[in-house]
Every structure is written in structure tokens, then in C-alpha cells.
Amino acid sequence: MSKTIHIIGNLTRDPEVRVSQAGKTICNMNVAVNSVTRKRMPDGSYNNEKTADYFRVTVFGTEAENCGKYLKKGRKVAVHGELSISIARDGNGKVIYRKDVDNNPTDEPLINLDLQAEGRVEFLSNLNPDEGGNATTAPAVAPAEAAPAAAPAPAPVPVDVPDDELPF
Hints:
By secondary structure, the chain is mainly beta. The protein has a domain at 4-37 and 46-127: CATH 2.40.50.140. The chain has one helix at residues 61-70, and strands spanning 4-11, 16-19, 25-40, 46-60, 76-87, 97-99, 105-109, 111-123, 127-128, 133-134. It has a five-stranded mixed beta barrel. A two-stranded antiparallel ribbon has the order 6-7.
């Protein structure tokens, strides 16, 4: 049974690119996927609780080269791939346990979420030539019925971009 998922999140550090002995390019990235849940408090009120899930993403080939070249810490990406789940262990093979907010160990083992990208990593940030990487994400486009009528946009101005700067 396949566990194919899609995630959208931000890189927690710069991608690490390496070349295997067989000459295959491999890129490893860590992606944080944020969520907010509403938690009911004992007094009947609600509190928004922010959480994050962290995925280790592995990308291969040309896509790995592009990720290493164009992505940086904090950039937003969408990844489509195969999920594998394992219990985290230290160097001696001993299970690592989660810690609570006071840094005390709990009885819950720490889980690794590994995602092998299947050739699909989408860069969800605009290219910023000043940084040599991506800028912040543009706001999502609202549905046509929710957007007010606007004046027609001016015709786009063609821009010459060298082939070696294209992310694909």
C-alpha cells in the first residue's frame, strides 16, 4: 500500500545537496508544516493552539539540483511524494522520547516523518534576483466572485532571463 501525500510548508534550513558514488544528485531538506487547532479550555473558552509537523524530504536528480540552487531556509514549497514513518533512535539504537513544554521526557517516542519526493517539488515563492533565491510567497488568489472588479492590468513587459537562472 502506498502512502503518497502532498505537503506545503517552509524550509527549516538550507537544502543539503550531495552526489552519490553512482553519480546521482541527492538533496535533503527539512520542511515544517504549520497548523492551528482550536482547543476548548476548562472554563469553556477556546484557545488557538499552533503546532508544526516536521518532514525530512529527499529529492533526486535534476530536481535535487534545482532545489539546492534556488531554495533557502524559510522558503515555502509544496512536495508530492511517498511517506515513510519510523521511530527516532540515537546513535546506540535507543529510542528517543518526545519532551513536554518543560523539557521533561514523555512516554511518547519521537517519530520521524520521511518524504521521498517523486520528482515534484514546487517552489511557492517568487524569484528575487537581489537574494539569488526566492522571495516571500505572494498572497493566494481569491475566487473571481469574491474579488471586486478591477481595471484591466497593463500588458506584461517581456524580460530576458538567462537559461541557467530558470528553476526548471
